[in-house]
Amino acid sequence: MEQKNKFNNRLGIWGWLSGGRYGLERYAYSLHRLCGLGILAYFLLHIFVTGSRIDGQGSWDSAMSSVEGIIFKIGEFLVFFAFAYHGLNGIRLILTEFGVFLGKPKRADFPYKQSTLRQRPVLLVVMVLAAILTIVGGWDFFIAN
Amino acid sequence: MGENPNMDTSQAEEIVKTVTYNVLRYDPDKDSKPRMQRFQVPVPKGRTVLEGLIYIKENLDGSLTWRSSCRMGVCGSCGMFINGLPRLACQTQILDLNADEIQIKPLPNYDILKDLVPDLKPLLEKHKYIHPNLVRREGKEIDGLTGEFFQTPKELENYIQFTFCIKCGLCLAACPTVATDANYLGPQALAQTFRYNTDTRDEGNQFRFDLIDTADGTTKCHFAGACSDVCPKGVDPAFAIQLLKRDMLLHKLHIKRKEKGVPILGKVTDGKRMKGVPDAPEKTV
Questions:
Q1: Which residue of B110, B222, B224 is in closest CB contact with A9?
Q2: Residue A33's CB: how many other CB atoms inside 10 A?
Q3: Structurally, how many domains does chain A consist of?
Q4: Confidence of residue B216 (pLDDT cuts 50, 70, 90)
Q5: B75-89, B217-231, B246-260, B270-284: least confidently modelled range
Q6: Which one of A2, A126, B45, B114 has the fewest beta carbons within 10 angstroms of its own beta carbon?
Q7: Sheet with strand B35-44: strands edge to edge
Q8: Is residue A100, in this structure, part of any structural domain at all?
Q9: Chain A residues near residue B26 by CB distance under 8 angstroms
Q10: Which H or E run includes A74?
């Protein structure tokens, strides 16, 4: 007999961020998705701003002036970070989806060493590269220009 | 309620410390939403979280409800969310948690039936969906099996890791994609798809690829790896799913196709016995 008063215990979006004490890959997953959503939001804004060029120079200047200021500059910098991380991590994910870095299946003996640990050095390299790009980008955004 | 005289821990086992169990309670007949309830549990060396729950039920609150059976990490019944991770309560020792307070909730991403009992129906339905059995083109080979299928140890090695799944459901509780998408097949079913597709005795590759080549199939896995982190049997579902993705692609590109399963061996009596091997003993049953 189907029970009626079941309580919905699905974590939802909260499950991406604070689901528990998992490995690094789960949080890399969450950051990858958040960066993807950020890039999507940027693209929408980008299309809206550049689309104003159709209505002439005045409309373009007006649209550009509305996205000036420190808030948008920081926003653009965050988009830069999102591109750097999402792109590099995306390459890692494509490679792992082809089974690269993951090893071969074999009988699992305790203590188990799962595939996430075998590819973790690659994730660490991705994070270091993303950090270097972000620092260089930050210098270009806020100091050089 | 007093101490259960049948569970006298004081004589045989020295109590190392007392921990607080903070347990989620939900009675579908009384409660509109879950609440947390605290219990003090004495802990001798080696006591598991499950044994702590049994202590509560026998001595403090007989209404506390959970699901368990074997107490040795085989049946997969006692999956719970213990101190921030899905774990088997029978395999988690209280002292190993290194905490004075233990928070115990039912597995997330499943509906709660009562207290710590999750509704595992979605897990089992998804498992059944991918046909977790040997599929042969000639159905009679399975229905009226006349002998063993020929399979080498090397071929067994390719999938044996994934046969140890005990359907405990921890992987779905850990998966962030399942957290936002109830229709996603999830790590358990997809790992079992790889397990059967890789089995050389099976001929159901195309059949299963058609089942999972949907928006709710492998494409929704983005290698968060949490399923593999929490698997108590080392099945490593995330690994299986990545290999399954590769196999699907190679299959679609006609690069790797498993067209025919291995044959059935002849009857053992057809062979010649090696010199010096004695007769089998008489049947006793």
A1: B110
A2: 18
A3: 1
A4: very high
A5: B270-284
A6: A2
A7: B35-44, B15-25, B101-105, B79-82, B85-88
A8: yes
A9: 7
A10: helix A70-97
The shortest CB-CB distance from B28 to any of A5, A16, A107 is to: A5
Residue B262: pLDDT band with limits 50, 70, 90: confident
Nearest to B230 by CA among B84, B47, B72: B84
CB contact under 8 A, A9 and B231: no
Query: Tell me: the pLDDT tens digits for B27-79?
Result: 999 999 999 999 999 999 999 999 999 999 999 999 999 999 999 999 999 99
Task: Please give the residue range of the domain that contains residue A82.
Answer: 22-144
pLDDT at position B134 is: 92
Q: What is the mean pLDDT of residues B158-162?
A: 96
The CB density around residue A64, as the number of other CB atoms within 10 Å, is 13
For residue A85, what is the domain's CATH number? 1.20.1300.10
Domain-embedded: residue A84: yes
The whole-number pLDDT of residue B1 equals 46
Query: Between B109, B157, B249, which is nearest A9 by CB?
Result: B109
Smallest Cα distance from B44 to chain A, Å:
25
**What is the residue whose two structure tokens read 């991380």?**
A85
Angle between helices B237-252 and B186-198 (to 10 degrees): 60
pLDDT recorded at residue B75: 96
In a domain, A140, yes or no: yes
Which B residues in the span 151-180 are in contact with A, Cβ-Cβ below 8 Å?
A: 157-162, 164, 174, 176, 178-180
Full set of structural domains in chain B with CATH: 8-118 (3.10.20.30), 121-252 (1.10.1060.10)
| 3 state SS of A64 | helix
CB within 8 Å: B225 and A11: no
- Residues B180-200 have pLDDT tens digits of 999 999 999 999 999 999 999
Q: Say yes or no to pLDDT of B3 above 90.
A: no
The answer to whether A1 contacts chain B (CB < 8 Å) is no
Is A88 inside a domain boundary?
yes
How far is the alpha carbon of A50 from chain B, nearest alpha carbon, in Å? 33
